[in-house]
Write a structure and sequence with these properties.
Helix content: 40-55%
Shape: globular
Number of strands: 7
Number of helices: 8
Distance between the termini: 20 Å
Strand order of the largest sheet: 4-5-3-6-7
Strand content: 5-15%
Bound molecules: shikimate-3-phosphate
Largest sheet: 5 strands, parallel
């Protein structure tokens, strides 16, 4: 069990949402506030594979990446409570989604298209955004994935301001969720 000021976690928190939603940035802040470790699933996948996600997509294709992602996330879910930032497609994979549902509390960081576009434009390392117009690609991914992300235990809107605002929204929503789960 990990205890922070007001929250006791008995399982990991998994942040889900599209590229640019702020999963890593908010995840780090959330972990600090909760007094637990932060883990980035993409970084763990790269460490396990010994290459970057971009190289993995290039050499082996997306399906191989998803296999690795599924295995790595299943392993991480078995670790003591921590905050895990998952890659944008992880929760969309049925087996990974099921594992997260069973072994973690999932939090969808929902963000609008303009925010996602602005944030993803800062770096150029995401293979899925390289195949065409990022606005169109992100819009398509929103159409496909938002109904699935909506299955997360908690939904929080990713604010377009200081990350502390979103972190505090997640903390408040998490406390409410845990209180509600305790009375059920
Ligand atoms: C992906 C998102 C990326 C990474 C990979 C695939 C996706 O992670 O896992 O490029 O399918 O949306 P971030 O959401 O952390 O950028």
């Amino acid at each position: 069990m990990a205890t922070a000021t007001h929250v006791t976690l008995s399982k990991p928190i998994v942040l889900v949402g599209l590229m640019g939603a702020g999963k890593s940035c908010i995840g780090r802040q959330l972990a600090t506030a909760l007094g637990v470790d932060f883990v980035d699933a993409d970084a763990e996948i790269e460490a396990a594979a010994g290459c970057t996600i971009e190289q993995m997509f290039e050499s082996h294709g997306e399906a191989a990446f998803r296999d690795g992602e599924r295995r790595v996330i299943a392993r991480l879910l078995g670790q003591p409570p921590h905050v895990l930032a998952s890659g944008g497609g992880a929760f969309v994979d049925p087996a990974t989604r099921q594992a997260i549902r069973e072994g973690a509390i999932s939090v969808w960081l929902r963000a609008d298209l303009e925010i996602l576009l602005r944030r993803t434009a800062r770096r150029d390392h995401r293979p899925l955004l390289k195949g065409g117009d990022p606005r169109q690609i992100l819009q398509n991914l929103m159409d496909q994935r938002y109904p699935i992300y909506a299955e997360a235990d908690i939904t929080v809107d990713s604010a377009d301001g200081p990350p502390e605002v979103t972190r505090d929204r997640v903390l408040a929503a998490l406390k409410a969720y845990l209180q509600e789960s305790a009375v059920q």
